[in-house]
Inverse folding.
DNA sequence: CTGAAAGCGCTTACAG
DNA sequence: CTGAAAGCGCTTACAG
């Protein structure tokens, strides 16, 4: 099996196109980048030359000459969590439509790797950057501040962003869900998550919950945190463990819907009555949440919208405009369903 | 609220570092890129200068000078489908570890946009490219062939790849599931998907099914294709429609697990006995598939592994080595569970 | 082991 | 509306 390859040819450059069209390279550059500054006839001739030679613009050279590229780095802590992927998808949608390319960095929740990613990406002379979360190494924050170009921190809404911030208040989300549970009459509520130390947004939701419980003079428990990554099976197992070890607990607030849906599916199989025996609540608003029986009470987080707004804000600033708000608190929605 | 920005400083270049360290720029370049070619003392002095000045290597200039970057473009048809995201995650894992960056292109299943993405990405002088699927415009295929650098087509295993190919045979997957259904005694089987015209991999699974049905002399039906994108709710609705309109159908082979799990959740709610009244099978192997009741019979596709192998093959070739196989047929696994 | 020269393929800024 | 010159910040290839 011989490789299905045509031998690599000499790179076709702007100069080649210019010669072919009988103009200067500068004119070709203009015809390509600012078509309106060139006469129609000339533009047609140049386009013909481009097609004839199969010219592909060297973006690297362009970026160097103009000291800037149209590549936007996006840094996320994980690609196995749908939540981040949906934010990336939202960013993609807006960025690609505006002619920007996305470079993808995955930190695996490691702040050192985040620093490395940021500083590498800076080497691509991007016009701005989008980064998930507001918890970074001081070095990272300083590097980005000194850099001085637009930066959007996404996911959570918080104080003192590096530059811009688009997200939701996880503390408030925790409060909102807990208020609902308390109103419904649940008194022994426990928070269950995975790797809550690293998933500090889940920890914020827990704090919101704790605040509400304290206000109502209800029993306050430490969160239960498992060491594996969130997955539905873990949610089901957690439910069974809690029923066994802490029979008084009457409601579980799971850190996310993966866990909560897993708990409901397990309950179904085991014949455990939800919410009668124990109530279950989640966070995120996964598609399956509304379809399981009982349907899951959860909080819808607008991931896609966060991504879109983040990209819009960034592009506004890249284009030299000033967005109305530097910090955007996107709202969430409590979906009360059957599981509570 | 004044922007939390420090004024942008003059860019620190290699030359600045060289002056600070008292050597030539060339030596700094070597110390940074090939540390082993420089004495320890010198390297330490240069690293100190880098830190002192906060130097960030300009990758754009490097890429232009060396006529190549370490950016690998990855082109997928969608980010809303988990399947592609998992492939991207697999690629990320291997590529990032080997020092490559990923550029992300989303075609939204539009082959024209795919062409645009490919030709734009070529302008970044990448050392190779990974692209989902084997169905492209002739222009796209020709462009990539003429380009002459390593290209991996992923997702499906097929004939005549542009260069390399890593994926699974969807035809065989369709055959395997159908053989199972026939063995189990189902005789009136229907294939249900969404946008099967665009989702040609689903169409290949259908063809595999059709072949097996024909061999067994069983009833062959056209696939049922909905115009919306795949989602669990659609799966549930499809189940109900088929029960109403085609009561003889005794098994549904869904194009993917999103639809199939949706069907099972709906059946649960409606009190429809699966597999007794009607059997349900899926494709992909989503986490929820094994947790619903009844657990879903499906085919596990190794998305993450496809991504990893694709990246490995590409990097092998970028590094000048020749992978053992140019085409890799990754295996899939039939998971027989309760729903059939 | 270290350095001076040339050049990668564009765009900016200045002329005409 | 079009072009000649200079330069973006590196690396390659050649010397010493």
């Amino acid at each position: 099996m011989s490789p299905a390859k045509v031998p690599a040819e000499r790179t076709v450059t702007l100069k080649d196109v210019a010669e072919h069209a009988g103009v200067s390279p500068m004119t070709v550059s203009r015809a390509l980048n600012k078509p309106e500054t060139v006469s129609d006839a000339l533009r047609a001739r140049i386009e013909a030359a481009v097609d004839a030679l199969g010219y592909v613009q060297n973006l690297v050279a362009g970026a160097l000459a103009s000291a800037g590229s149209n590549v936007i780095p996006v840094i996320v802590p994980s690609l196995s969590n749908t939540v981040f992927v949906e934010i990336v998808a939202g960013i993609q949608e807006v960025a690609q439509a505006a002619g920007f390319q996305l470079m993808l960095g995955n930190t695996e929740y490691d702040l050192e790797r985040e620093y490395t990613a940021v500083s590498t990406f800076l080497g691509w002379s991007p016009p701005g950057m989008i980064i998930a979360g507001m918890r970074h190494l001081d070095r990272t924050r300083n590097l980005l501040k000194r850099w001085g170009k637009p930066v959007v921190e996404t996911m959570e809404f918080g104080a003192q962003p590096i530059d811009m911030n688009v997200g939701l208040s996880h503390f408030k989300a925790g409060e909102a869900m807990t208020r609902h549970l308390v109103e419904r009459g649940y008194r022994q509520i426990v928070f269950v998550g995975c790797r809550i130390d690293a998933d500090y947004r889940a920890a914020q939701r827990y704090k919101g919950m704790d605040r509400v419980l304290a206000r109502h003079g209800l029993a306050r428990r430490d969160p239960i945190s498992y060491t594996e990554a969130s997955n539905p099976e873990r949610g089901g197992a957690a439910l069974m463990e809690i029923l066994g070890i802490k029979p008084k607990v009457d409601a579980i607030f799971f850190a996310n819907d993966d866990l909560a849906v897993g708990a409901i599916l397990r309950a179904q199989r085991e014949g455990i009555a939800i919410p009668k025996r124990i109530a279950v609540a989640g966070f995120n608003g996964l598609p399956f949440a509304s379809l399981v029986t009982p349907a899951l009470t959860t909080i819808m987080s607008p991931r896609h919208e966060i991504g879109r707004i983040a990209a819009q804000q960034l592009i506004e600033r890249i284009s030299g405009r000033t967005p109305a708000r530097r910090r955007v608190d996107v709202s969430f929605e409590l979906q009360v369903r059957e599981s509570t």
Remarks:
- The mean pLDDT of chain B is 93.
- The two ends of chain B are 62 Å apart (CA to CA).
